[in-house]
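---------- Forwarded message ----------

FYI, see the Rx N-terminal domain-containing protein record below. Original note from H. follows.
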Amino acid sequence: MADQTQGAIDALLGLLTRAIGDEARLLGGLPGNMQFIKDEMDSMNGFLMHLTKTESEHDDQIRAWMKQVREIAYLAEDCVERYVRDIAPHDGGGILDTLVFLFCHPNKYWLRHRLAKQILELKARVNDVGERRNRYGVKVPPGSELKKAEDRAAAEEEKRDAFRRALEQGIADFSRQSSQQDQAPGVMIYSSIRTAVRRLLPAAVPSFITKAIAQLPAHVRSQGAAVVRGTWKKCHPAANDEATFRCIEMLLCALYAYPFKGNNLELKRLSRKLSQEDEEAAGADEIKKQAMIFCYSLLSTNQKSCLQYLTAFQEETAISRTSLVRRWVAEGLVSNEPGRTLQEAGERYFSDLLFRGFIRRARIGDAGTVKSCEPLSGPISEFISSIAKADNFVVELPVHLDRQLQIRKIVKQPRPTHQAAAADYYRCWICCRKQDAEAVVDPMDDLAKFLTKLPALYRLNVLDLGGCKGLKPSHIATICTVVWLKYLCLRKTDVRRLPPRHMGKLKLLETLDIRETPRIHPRDVRRMTAADVSVVTVKIPARIAAMRNMETLSHVQVSDELLGGVAKLHRLKKLGVVIHQANNPTAQQLLAVVCKLAGSLRSLSIWVTQAGFLDISVLQEATPSLILENLDVNGRISSSLPSWVEMAGKLANISLRDTEMNGGETLRRLANVQSLRCLKLRRRSFIEQALIFRDVHFRALRFLIVDGDTITSVAFVADAAPKLEKIVWAISKVHSGELISGIDKLPKLEEIEIRGNFNVNSLLQAIGPRTEPPASTIRYRCRYVYLSDFNEITVVSKTKSDTATTLSLPAGVINQQQ
């Protein structure tokens, strides 16, 4: 609970510092009152920072005091933000300025007095909370000195991923083998006896746990190994015991990422539970709960808040990673980290929660990137919900999470068509009465009523209306009265207009998501100079240079005149341009944009729609400072990639489509991109049909995606791609013959995925009888997937004894598309 309270106070302190230093001139005594509040909050923040570092559980007295501090921090932040937003721009400070302000802005003058009174009341409450802590003796419990391990380096990310994948594969193999043993002929009748014996005898620790323990950090390996083995033996998991397997997985990942060097009280407590005598021993459920408490205790301050926020997504089937991270940022759950933006820090939280097993992957991209996660479910959901309720002394979800849940329930309601609504109305009028007919309402009308009934001081920071249909101008007007909004999602809606007179009220808006909302005209967002807008539209707004806080421009049509304005967006991180006229002036302006934004631009997408070349080969001035990570080229830019790509030190993902480049020259340049992790070769990317990956090249390449029928074969020579893990090949036309050769030259290869419109009978005949070999003998897996719906047909495991060096498709396996 201390983590959420500290986060609220951190946000308030930053706001108070700015308000006092620049604009705290509301009334004569107001600056002093605000300074007093800031000083008190500074002291409370120091107390809380110490409190979050202790390992013992917080008693009810401490938790109640922290709840009061958090509530005051939220109220104080509201008052200060309202002053900075509504009053400060008109407030001069002197007597004459006050008189002018009174006559010119009478409403705001009285608002200023109300705010002053509220801040006086807050001062009294802050003083009372501080005295209450002393009166009841709320003190920091003694805790052990802990040394936090150094922040992980970028090189450790791959090791963590490998550890996680090996652990997941080990659990899957063990579960499958146990299930096969239980279902073997002659064994089913003895299943009850086997279960009884398993409960009586010590459970043998499987090899995947032993291997994982060997990779734990040295300072936690011994004690952690005892805890993991004890948990396994106490729980006696069966083949289908998903809860226990997930508990073991989370426990091992928590120990692998163990941040402290020294003793840990939670780990000791779990050890004591496991070492108790039989008559006092905790049951399997209690053991799993204690293991979960231990894993949760190792999360950072902000990670716990972000995890609790996921309880508001119970109505979802999948949660977009990008959307979730932006919502965390808008809710103030992400703190600043040196050298990172809030978005990047939020992405780091997501990766950590994913690694530790608190959230599960829902959709994974071809390059292994998690695109969405599943909502909390099962024991994890129950545990996190109980934590959120306990922190707020309530039996239901906290108010802010419950309201988000109510909004999503309203949004998820099916909207009746005009004909159905009219029919229902008429039927109710004839058969029942007028009141029942009036009850047939649009869910968006319910949402508008819900928003209007929110308390005046309630901060609704996030509103996600993705996928809603039937949004009327009156609904938009109501939404824009929620002045605290920082995140507004209108993706895939049928909104026609976003009138500036309404959108201008959202002065705190940071993210406006209007992707796949084609009816909105760019002029409706051009005046939003205060917003960090995420725009996906068809034409670039004419006044784009005024939107200084913009971070994302995706799929916008540009010309050489308008690109000059884009170069002034110094916070821009993602740029996607559509170019209809591939001429030299446009190419030079685009290069100038890349040059000027070299220190901020992380992703660049270029789509050339017409014939001709867009020559972007000359970029010299900013090459050393270029931090570009993703490059997506669709259309012809030259016969090869520009030479400056080779010097982009952080370039990890490259995608080519319809580029019609020279394969040999382009591969040579790509091989020199030292950080290249994923290479996507889409339709007509090269003019050659056969590609050869030569030696001492592609040292970091892990994923290769081939999509289309121009390329018919790929060959690897020795040491060409020593880290390549996965090859994905999508084939849409009839194809037969050798696809991949030199497979034996890929020591890290784990999977080959072939996508196509398969003739299933021919495919199964070509593959032959399938038996799953022991996991230790598997060299790599070959997966066949329907191209249309991505349903898996079959998986073939290649063993180490298999000497085949090529992968081929027999004739008749791929159907001809109509």
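H. also flagged this: The two ends are 60 Å apart (CA to CA).
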